[in-house]
Structure formats: structure tokens, C-alpha cells
Amino acid sequence: MLKATLLAFTLLAATALSATAAQPAADPLAPAGHWTGARAGRAATPPMGWNSWNAFRTDVDEAKVMGTAKVLVDSGLRDLGYVYVNIDDGWWLKRRTSDGRMQVRTAIFPSAKVGGSETSSFRPFTDKLHRMGLKAGIYTDIGGNSCSQAYDLHSPNLPEGTTAERQIGLRGHVQQDIKLYFADWGFDYIKVDACGINVYGADSPVVKQHKYNVYPSLIDQASINRTNIPAVRALYQQVADTLAASNPDGDYVYSICAWGAADVRSWGKEVGNLWRTSGDITPQWGRMLHTFDSASTRALYAGPGHWNDPDMLFVGHGDFDVHHLTEARTHFSLWAMINAPLIIGYDLRNAPPALMSIWSNKDIVRVNQDRGGHQAVLAYDSDDVQIFVKTLSDSGTKAVLLSNRGLAPAEVSLTPAQLKMVGDVALTDLWSKKTMTLAGDTLKFTVQPRESRVFEARGKRQLADGMYLSEIPGAINIARDGVTMPVPDPVIHRMSNPWGATINGGERPSYGGWGGARADATPYDQALTVDGKVFTSGIGILANSRMEVKAAGFSHFEAKVGVDDSTRNLKDKVVFQVFGDGHLLAQATAAYGQAAQTLSADLANVKTVELVARSEAPTSDLPLVVTWGDAALRE
Ligand code: GLA
User: Fold this and answer.
1) C-alpha separations of 109 from 61, 104, 124, 131, 511 in Å
2) pLDDT-based confidence at 20, cuts 50/70/90?
3) Which of 118, 312, 441, 589 is deepest in the core (most CB within 10 A)?
4) Is any ligand 1 atom within 6 A of the Cβ of residue 193?
């Protein structure tokens, strides 16, 4: 203990010293003293709107987009929050050789035909959307060429001209393009894809066939070790910096589309407002589960201003079409619960009422848009049945979803404990609007194949005067998660590949993030357990981690801490520290096999609590799993 205390004082002194000497803090676990996570300014709640890709691929045009925009307004969807109208791949004609200015394909966007044949502008288009009370989104690529130039080779809307004219991505033009899209053309949202740094390597057949410039592949989707993570992140960061510096009204949303590759599931929150956690969704049940799973365990990495993106909605197509409303409602409900952006991908000009009633379910939208930004957390998990619980901002209210992923009816029991509630719980079905009471220990439901039941639950919280940290993931910033080597996450549904035959041995886990922080589970998907005691509430994380927690309004922190029984590193000790606005408030040292110790701290006017778990004198590289059991803020 003495040793640990000395260590803490040395660290505090070191922090103070480095601050006076104005040097960067050498200790990555030193408390920041304040919240350093995303601020809610932009994308305070998950972005909502429409995108052309899932509806039209590159066969997009102005009539289709404006027709859709009109439906958004006339149907009331805009007033529910669906304000972004985003054009995806296919809008470009070429890059002007004289000065590199991008040209719009005016044959499909006629309002852009301004200023002569070698000039064009999306300004009339975005002005019109703005006049309609909508916002406008544009699409580009982080490299030199786009995805359609590799994958949609029969499209009539591919960029035209010389090799240089067909370089329509941001590569070498970040400042120029961002200024054009935001300051000159007035866009409010940008999606930045990654094909340009993925499929245009020297050995790519498409490069030779179509005479594209070679760009060495920075992303290998099948191999995280062969992906240049720092280089990918730096390119996306450059765009973030440019957006921040050169945006006239400061109102923009930055969507990173790197398909869960390059460990973006870990760093996306520090760079963009949303980041794709997986490859593309398709209108197939299994693929929807796959992209959902890539985001659904990442609650601690999202919150106001920064959202996991399991890709755009495919409601209306394939397995989610008007003949499969059960599946369509499930897809929509799942996205709503995990705070996914709600971006419609359907030709709204022809949408049947049954589909319109899905996107316009006010109650489900309200769950998604709750200002707390707490992504739902798994309360029960299996390959067939899942229960997710999401804390809403009204005191004592939660949303709960019971989902049957399988093909047989499932008996599902809901308990107050799963809701972290005690006593009777009032339930309102957010699809049928029926009400019922969960009285006693359980309420049983028969959930039909592929059905999801979603309820608003009102009751007495287990902690009458506080919140478990795992109930408020949107108020937590995982500043360091202790992961030293990105490892592919295996807890993601593996569908048979929608684009290929069943060849090459099957679908392998490929998205980094395994070992990341989890609410109510360990980083490796075990129950939180210290010396045989199971904690149903808590945060599981690796040692050498630091979390920031918004604590305003609370007067006390407490947790039962220890090395988790599931750790692979059984030898090294861990020092747990609690800081309040940078001041050390409590600490304890723990070893594997030792009972959980109580850490508690009074928080007088503290805004940010920081929770540091540090391996004391590491002797092993094996992952050291720690548990902040029952970690809670109390009033
Ligand atoms: C990639 C993206 C999609 C879409 C297409 C466009 O596949 O992940 O969302 O933008 O490119 O070509």
C-alpha cells in the first residue's frame, strides 16, 4: 500500500512538474483533470436522415434526391429528426485539370450547371435543401479514387477523363475539397470512404485495366497486422483538422467509413462523429446481425457527439421489405437501441405506408435520440436471444429490447434485475403501445422468430440515489483501454459472404477491438468476477487503462475493485486509483485471487472522475483483466 501511495505521489508530482515545464505528459495514465472525450456540439444525438446508396447505388440523380427530400418534409419525417439528405457515390464528373476543382456530373444534377461547362456548383442544390429545413451531405474518399471506380464498373456515373481527372478522392486535395464542399457549396455532413487506400495497390487488376494511379494499400481487411493503423488514422485526422479549421458555421458531421478496419472501432471516437464498425450491410438477415454485432458491444466507445455506425438502414429491401415487417421492425429497433445513426436507404417517393410507419415510430425514434446518449447494454446474451437495456434521461426510465435472432419461437423471461430495477416495473410496448406490469420476479414472453419486442420500462432503480457506471456509458470516455495489440473481435455474427461463394475457408473475425472495455462484462466477454464473486454491474477493462466519467451532480463514487478471475496474467498486481478533477481521492492495490476491495471517494463539486488501473511492476505481457465491480456514482 505504502509503495502504491508513493507511486501515486510521484505520479502527481511528475504531472505537476511536466505541466509547469509545458512538456507533454510522459505518463499515458496521468489524469487529465477534465473531460477529454467528444463534446456534444455536433451530432449531439445520432444523426438521422437519408442516403442515396442503399436505394440507388450510383444510379442517383437530382430528381430522386429532391423527390425524397419532399417526402421527408411532407410525411413529417423531417420533423421527427430525419434532416440529413446525403448523396453517396456517383455524383462526380471529374477533377478540373487547370486547378484541381471538383466538377459535379450536371447531367444528373442539373441545378449544378452554373458558370459554364467547366464549372459547376452544388450551391443551388444545398440552398434548396436548406430552404426545406433539411441539411445536405456529400460523399468522398480518403484516397485518390472511390469505391465505385473499383466495384461498380458498369455504372454510367463513373468519373470521366484522364487518370488525373478521375482522381476524385481527397488525396492531395484535402484543404481544397473541404473548403469547396463546406464553405462554397454549403454541405453540412461528409462521409469519407476508404477504397482509395484499400484497393488501388500496384498489384490490383483494376488499376491496370482502368489506368488509375497506384496507391499502396494501407488497409488489408483480412489482416490487422498488415494494416497501417497509424497512417490510416493520420489521414482521417487530417480531414478532421481541416473541417475544424475551415468550416464557416462550425456545423458539420464527419462520418468515417473505414468498415471497422484499421482498429477504427477504438479510435473513431477521437477523430469523427461516427465511424463504421463493419463492412457494408446488405439486405440479408445474417448480414444485418453481423453489422449490428460489430457495434452492439461497444457502448463505452460512444456517446453524445460520437457514435458507433453499423451502417445505414436497409429497411424496405430484401429480408426487410414490406413482406417481412417483423424483420424490418427488428432491424430498426436494434439500430435505435444502440444509438446507431438512423439513415434511411429507401426510395421514399414510393414507400408503402407499412414501411413509413416503421421509420416514423416516434417512440422508437425517441429512444434513439435520447439526449443522454447512453447506448444500450447487453443484459442477456446468447446466439439466439438477446436482451438490451438502454438508460433514458427521464429519471427511472429505460428502454428494453427482447430479440429473437433465431428461426424458432423463443421463451424469454425479463427480470427487474436485468433492468437494474427493484419491485414492480410498468412496461409499454413501443410497437403495439400496449401496457403491462412486470410484477414479481419475471415476466415471460414468447418472442416469434426474428421478432424484437421493445418496451419502455418505468420503475424503481436498484440504486435509488445513483447510477451504476454501466447504466450511463454515454457519460464515460475510455481515454485508454489498455489494449496494446489490436486483436480481431470474435463475438460478431458470421454470415455466409453475400458477395462471394462459400470459398476460402469461411468468414474470419477481422475487426480490431477484442479486449476493449465493456459494460457489465469483461473485455473478453465473461461475467465480471473477482475471487469467485460475480458482479452483475460494473466495468470490465484491461489494466493500464484510464476512464473519464462525467460526475457533475453526484457527491460520491464507489466501486469494488480487483483483478478479474478471467485474467490471463495471474502474476502482476494492479493499482486502482480514483481521481476527482485531477486529484487523487482513493486507491488500492490488488492481486489475482484476492477478494474485491471497496474504493470510495467523496466528490465535492467534482466534474470529472477518472478511474485508472495500472499494473504495478509488469513482469508479463499477458492481458491483465480488471473489474470495477458495482462501480457507481451516488447523489
Ligand atoms: C463503400 C461504402 C458504402 C458506399 C459505397 C459506395 O462500400 O462502405 O457505404 O458508400 O462504398 O461506393
Assistant:
1) 6, 7, 10, 18, 37
2) very low
3) 312
4) yes
